[in-house]
Amino acid sequence: MADFPLHTADSAPEAAQANLKAAEKKMGFLPNIFAKMAEAPTLLDAYMTLDGIYAKTSLSPVEQQAALLAISADNHCAFCVAAHTGGIKQAGADDEIVKDLRDRKTPNDDKLAAVTRFARHLNAQRGWAEQAELDAFLEAGFTHQQVLELVIACALKTLSNYTNHLAGTPLNEELRPLAWEAPTS
Questions:
Q1: Which stretch of DSSP H or E encloses residue 151?
Q2: pTM, rounded to two decimals
Q3: Where's the Carboxymuconolactone decarboxylase-like domain (predicted)?
Q4: Can you tell me the distance from the alpha carbon of 26 to that of 39, in angstroms, rounded to the nearest whole number?
Q5: Are 121 and 152 in contact (CB under 8 A)?
Q6: Of 10, 90, 162, 175, which is least surrounded by CB within 10 A?
Q7: Is 164 within 8 Å of 84 (Cβ atoms)?
Q8: Contact (CB, 8 A) for 183 and 73
């Protein structure tokens, strides 16, 4: 695996510095995923822009984070599972839902079960959703708009999960209490 730099706002290419400073100000620390993405400022900008767009979807904050957490767990991305564990807790999900998602199980909540099942299916099928899965998502009370909004979740996790896999992103100290280990099987 290549040794990708773990940038700071000062060591990053100039085109990435403003995004890194904004992320650090917003979060109170610089997530290492952004420090790695900074090597390619356009990747960092793409992720941060798309993340801002995803936050505006019609999915609730808990539904948004549930989809991201489920996809990250399925993609065995330890960094993103920890990060989205914090995100979904901050959005108001209870501990049982968080545990189920981290364990790659279906949450005991009809709406979140539908979101995570469809997000996982969409991710696994690379967008070639089976009609029965699409119908089940819609029958759970979601819309065609929300089907397409979950494409954004898959795109976000492709950007971050792949980056973490390639760059070997270490977990920030701030995220260590939320650490997760990918299953070996």
A1: helix 144-167
A2: 0.95
A3: 41-102
A4: 20
A5: no
A6: 10
A7: no
A8: no
**Residue 180 to residues 27, 72, 82, 83, 104: CA-CA distances in angstroms?**
20, 11, 6, 10, 12
List the alpha helices (DSSP H) in the chain: 14-27, 32-37, 41-54, 61-74, 78-91, 95-102, 110-124, 131-139, 144-167
- Give pLDDT tens digits for 57-70: 999 999 999 999 99
Which pLDDT tens digit goes with each residue over 73-124? 999 999 999 999 999 999 999 999 999 999 999 999 999 999 999 999 999 9
What are the backbone angles phi and psi of residue 11, rounded to the nearest 5°?
Answer: -90, -15
The amino acid sitting at 44 is: L
Give the number of residues written for the chain.
Answer: 185
Angle between helices 110-124 and 61-74 (to 10 degrees): 40
Rounded distance between C-alpha atoms, residue 84 and residue 141, angstroms: 24
| DSSP for residue 171 | P
Q: Which residues contact 128 (CB under 8 A, 6 or more apart)?
A: none
All residues at 6 or more sequence positions from 30 whose CB lies less than 8 Å from its CB, including other chains: 8, 9, 20, 23, 24, 172
Residue type, 14: E
